[in-house]
TrEMBL record, chains A, B:
GO biological process, one term: threonine biosynthetic process
Keyword ATP-binding set for record: yes
Pathway: Amino-acid biosynthesis; L-threonine biosynthesis; L-threonine from L-aspartate: step 4/5
Top-level taxon of the source organism: Bacteria
Alphabetic keyword roster: Amino-acid biosynthesis, ATP-binding, Kinase, Nucleotide-binding, Threonine biosynthesis, Transferase
Protein family according to the UniProt entry: Belongs to the pseudomonas-type ThrB family.
Protein name listed in UniProt: Homoserine kinase
HAMAP family the UniProt entry points to: Homoser_kinase_2
Molecular-function GO terms, alphabetical: ATP binding; homoserine kinase activity
EC number annotated for this UniProt entry: 2.7.1.39
Reactions it catalyzes: L-homoserine + ATP = O-phospho-L-homoserine + ADP + H(+)
Amino acid sequence: MSVFTTVTADELRDWLKNYSIGHLVSLEGIPAGIENTNYFVDTSHGRYVLTVFEKLTRTELPFYVHLMAHLARHGIPCPAPIADRDNEYLGTIHGKPAMLATRLAGRSQMEPGPAHCAAIGNMLATMHVAGQSYNRRFDNPRGYAWWVDTAPRLLDFLPADERALLESEIAFQRAARDDGLCRELPHGVVHADLFRDNVLMDGERVGGVIDFYFAGDDYLLFDLAVTLNDWCSDAAGELDPAKADAMLRAYHAERPLSDAEHRAWPAMMRGAALRFWMSRLYDFHMPRDGAMVHKHDPARFRDVLRARIRAGDTLPWR
Amino acid sequence: MSVFTTVTADELRDWLKNYSIGHLVSLEGIPAGIENTNYFVDTSHGRYVLTVFEKLTRTELPFYVHLMAHLARHGIPCPAPIADRDNEYLGTIHGKPAMLATRLAGRSQMEPGPAHCAAIGNMLATMHVAGQSYNRRFDNPRGYAWWVDTAPRLLDFLPADERALLESEIAFQRAARDDGLCRELPHGVVHADLFRDNVLMDGERVGGVIDFYFAGDDYLLFDLAVTLNDWCSDAAGELDPAKADAMLRAYHAERPLSDAEHRAWPAMMRGAALRFWMSRLYDFHMPRDGAMVHKHDPARFRDVLRARIRAGDTLPWR
């Protein structure tokens, strides 16, 4: 179950009086939510999504909410938050922060071909460029510092071969940074979780990019690596060269990748795999109280990491 | 012809590099423009309208552009301006101010029924409420002060009966204000030109409200009267009671009309008719240099004004 806060039609009708989107036509819970409660809200004026935030606080939310508003007004097809009559994006439902945003067209494409990978690669580059003028800052909470802090706490849960893999990969990532490999990489606000289920495809067009609640500041190349690892890996974790090539070329056409990014690419692909292997291990072995987080299998990104290490410098590039 | 500034596909491709909306797919001039040049612009990311401003200046435009942005983020289906990579809404094409905005669905309904009139009445009330939190101010340049200033300049062009009508109506409007009839009327930013051709209907739903370049601060009731005079009048200028009733009820349901507004309603309907009779006389008899303004027949609103005067206090009300 993933509707944690029940909102009745009567409650919503009352709440909508704070907004300028007409009267309620229909209300339907969305089961896909993991961290938040989401409803489809159709009104006489249009189609919206209501999000009730179960964990994120009023202190944390403005970074994400204003990021979506910023990207939307730059033309990125992401949820555009709707301001209420007091000009605020965040309201309150059942004592929790809540937001209305536009509903986007399309559905997740879980078996993408090269054309889909090209579309999302181009959109990602566009988002990165549009994000450069966003002026709020928030370090990616699942970035390199988190890897280094968290790895020692995970070791005891792992069999010997995985423990060795985790230790050596952390050492590799540290050495890469100590060697200055990341020094010249462009950085900025990144989505950091642009998996297939966070993109709505409308045919071969990107209809919507959703779920910005892992966004933060990091290397733009890290975001590309996260995206490519999900969209362009096969069942064994190996890269599909046609899909990877399509994504990289489309990204490069919108935001040309630099020589420094070329040099850092193999390490960044490994780091992006490491990040999800670690966070899945973390959620699996150290679940939070009353965990509502759906547990993904950590083995998937262990395999991706091993595949990237094996591939070394032979990874596809633009 | 109404495309005053020719923009080629090559020029636009170059210009789009300032934006985050993907690459150009198609470009098509829109012949309907009167004061601006407009193009439909389809890109890999979506559908947009490019407006090149032929007369409005960079000093005047921010009021309108930010008004559209404000209303759009409140959920009003109006063109949402797209910010460029420098975070600006207004760019430059051929030395003129230019803007990209979202393209809306629907088409003008020139023979509306009561259901259409209800939809636009409700939308107008919603816009008025959303506009209350807009914080830029600009007096309606075609408001009461303009009527009083301009009437003497029009008299010489008119036959005796129309001259008498204009003089007596100005005197009536002045007396209404001197008597305090308008003192308690809610005011704020209004569209001021919400004729049928400025609304895109998507079936019986309002798909889009466009052309905000006559917007300004005035009585909210004035905007309702302008809208009703166009949508709910028959060929002779008489109100269609079923349409007028539908619009008024739908407006009232969203923003309840006050007793003061009830008292001022007959005078406001006359004032709204007077405004368009006068501006059409003005454009007809005193065309601006190189006038690109399409000349509407002034007689239409003379007839509407006469019909409202005849109807007196028997006009429909919620």
